[in-house]
Amino acid sequence: MILSNAENRKQKTENKPLRICVPVVESNVHRARNLYLRSARRGFWTELRLDYLEQPDLKRLLRTRPGKVIATNRLASEGGQWRGGEADRRLILEEALALGADCLDLELAADAAWRRELWSRRGATQIILSWHDFSGTPGADRLDGVFQEMLAGEADILKIVTQAREPADNLRVLSLIPQAKAAGREIIAFCMGPLGKWSRVVAPNLGSFLTFAPFSKKGASAPGQLTVNEIRRLWKMLK
Q: Would the pTM of this model clear 0.85, i.e. be above it?
């Protein structure tokens, strides 16, 4: 049987594993490492939020990598905990790249020349280009402008996350998933906050690269995150 292009894309989306990424927001390297190992044992991805660490000893944190790791050192302006200088923030991300992190999260707001430099020497590491709006969800024109800018950037995976102020905001952000797929790009897209919870559940079913879920509420790295057990229970119900 010969499938059309649209049917092929649909089949690939249906066959794609629904990935959960556990954010690690510990201030202590030992606890962060243990949580990473727990996540890896269960077959989940892990986002190591380096901006939460009081002393980011990456060699100890990444001495072995039993599971997929995203290294993130989030700017305070985008909901992160980093309070140091930009040069030091970049050095930590560069070290994570040198140690072989599977993915490196770089904000669209970061210096473009620096992002291009990391892209040129990324090796097997995938680059996530991210953009967050904690104040709300922009209108369609503004959101499309950000999306087009990111499509033109050096990235393996795009990440666009906004705060939902009304239910329709979720639809506007989730609509970016098929657009990215049509352009041949991977994307992570959903909304934050109480009104955005359901978008975190359905996004992977629509083709989002992954969704974020901590093991417990206290491990949340952003507003509106459901726990691993909640996400899996809802996925089971949707089936």
A: yes
